[in-house]
Specification:
126 residues; mainly beta; seven-stranded mixed beta sheet; four-stranded antiparallel beta sheet; globular
């Protein structure tokens, strides 16, 4: 069974940093673009960032540009999301998801992602 597993979440103070990881199994990792989404209690899921299959292209939500950096290591079937200068309003469950590299359209469309992880909780205290 294809699987994505997130890790690296936790509790951090405002202004702090966390590095999330997402590791894939039973998936030809280099055939997939990977996205990060987050969902806070009572709110809709929102796009955070995405990276192309080769790592040559990264896309960020305006709210995280300049603070978050996404990267990938295809040899290890893993993507990373480095989050700096975190804000309390960014408290949410963070999910990684995989989208076929052959699929066209916007990276921010959650409906285009076929495989999802279980999520990791990020809590930013004020």
């Amino acid at each position: 069974q294809v699987q994505l597993v997130e890790s690296g979440g936790g509790l951090v103070q405002a202004g702090g940093s966390l590095r999330l990881s997402c590791t894939a199994s039973r998936l030809t990792f280099s055939n997939y673009n990977i996205g990060w989404f987050r969902q806070a209690p009572g709110k809709e899921r929102e796009f955070v960032a995405a990276i192309s299959w080769s790592g040559g292209e990264t896309i960020y939500a305006d709210s995280v540009k300049g603070r978050f950096t996404m990267s990938r290591d295809n040899a290890k079937n893993t993507v990373f999301l480095q989050m700096n200068s975190l804000k309390p309003e960014e408290t949410a469950v963070y999910y990684c998801a995989a989208r076929s590299k052959y699929r066209s359209g916007s990276y921010s469309n959650a409906d285009d992602y076929a495989v999802w992880g279980q999520g990791t909780q990020v809590t930013v205290s004020s």
